[in-house]
Amino acid sequence: MSERADCALRAAEAGGAVALGSFREGIAVETKGDKTDVVTQADRDAQETVVAAIREEYPEDAIVGEEDEELRDVPESGPSWIIDPIDGTNNFVRGIQMWTTSVAATVDGEIVAGASVCPALDDTYLLDDGAAYRNGEAISVSDEADPEAFTVVPTVWWPFERREEYTAACRGIVERFGDMRRFGSAQLALALCAAGAVEGVVTNVEANPWDSVVGAGLVEAAGGTVTDIHGESWRHDSRGLVASNGEAHDLVLEAAREAEAEAER
Which residue in 117, 251, 259, 137 sits closest to 196, CA to CA? Predict the structure, then answer.
């Protein structure tokens, strides 16, 4: 394992263990804006633990994080870390097991290693040296080529004033593909795409880097395709995120563009 992958994994495991200690323990919940944009002390404690683990090895590197006083934008040059202590906090506070602690290592804005740990599911996803793993075993995207057998995920939440876009995204999926899921955690949805459990993940929303970078890296390393809403190569600051197993990416992209067309009205 590379040094940065090892650090990402250890930091994510440490933060995930802290979060798991408060899971289903009746922890107090606060809102950051919208009523569904929630945060808990577990988020803050887990992020503090992740940061401390990174700082032990890389004290000078920039850190981008969802909570507290960390940077909000990924530096375009030099090494940095992107962390989400609990991706899927709405699941976390409801006692639903689908949440992750995710840590990405980047250099010049590009991911080089990362880990998404799912403590309540007992799964760990790792990106290292261009390969993707779950629980130590190499993973790859689904080889399903028939769109009528695809399962596709709408992800990254649309606020109330943008629910028409959410509706359009769902319509775009159900009119083209066999089934649809929503997991409430973008990092987990992308990891599951990398592991072949679903064939596509779509949003026209500009995803925060802490919600997306590890997962997008996993999909690409597992042989899938990740683009922005325009079909161009995806970056941490792209508008939209469209991930697929690559077998019918244009069709998955069409579903995402249903939401974008609604946004442009």
Answer: 137
The range of the structural domain enclosing residue 17 comes to 3-138
Q: Does 154 share its domain with 254?
A: yes
Q: Which helix (H) or strand (E) holds 39?
A: strand 38-40
Residue 158 has pLDDT above 90, yes or no: no
203 in the same domain as 158: yes
Global pTM value? 0.95
Number of domains in the chain: 2
**DSSP assignment string, 151-198:** EEEE-SPPPGGGHHHHHHHHHHHHTTSSEE---S-HHHHHHHHHTTS-
CB 86 within 8 A of CB 80: no
Q: Tell me the one-letter amino acid at 5.
A: A
Whole-number pLDDT of residue 37: 73
CA distances to 10, 139, 176, 212 from 52, in Å: 11, 30, 45, 22
Which contiguous run of DSSP H or E holds residue 134?
A: strand 131-134
Same domain, 184 and 67: no
